[in-house]
Specification:
By secondary structure, the protein is α/β, with parallel strands linked by helices. The chain is about 40% helix and about 15% strand. The protein has eight helices and five strands, in the order ββαβααββααααα. The protein has helices at about 55-65, 75-85, 85-100, 135-155, 160-165, 170-180, 190-195, 195-200, and strands spanning about 15-20, 30-35, 70-75, 105-110, 120-125. Helix 2 packs across helix 3 (about 85-100).
Amino acid sequence: MLKSHFSIDPSVIECGCDEAGRGCLAGPVVAAAVILPPDYVNARINDSKQLSRKVREELRAEIERDAVAYAVCFVSEKEIDEINILNASITAMNRAVQQLSVTPQFLLIDGNRFRNQTGIPFQCVVKGDATYLSIAAASVLAKTYRDERMMALDAEYPVYQWKKNMGYPTPEHQASVLEYGLSPYHRRSFHLKKATQLSLF
């Protein structure tokens, strides 16, 4: 069972934050921020990577129904190229928090790096999506919203099989890039750094 609260004071309004798509070749990075009720219980919520697509979709509806507040932010592949993927991930989480309809008093950030632009106290938690309920809920929203976007983009560029790989560097995706080149949704900066692996340049 994941922990429902970080603070010993349950009246503190906590917000969990996570992102999806950091390791992809194509598409946006997506972050979510979620404030759950302090006494919230949902035994099915877990790190989105541990859940099937069907369960993630079911949980998305439950989280959106039950959350005190939630927000989802997309940072495009163009902005990723401009500011790099780490900065884009951090930017997405900050923007998601800033879009919340309720202002949290404390942020729980998945991972070990964060540059706070909100002025709200925070704690980074390694493997936080497997530790705290609010971060796991954010991971579910970030993942499902990003998958939804990639499946829509797949209709424009089916040769990359994004509806299967969601933009991640599977062997089939990399082979498609070698055969067809880069789409407008591919991250140029990532490929420049990985050029020796993909033999693109």
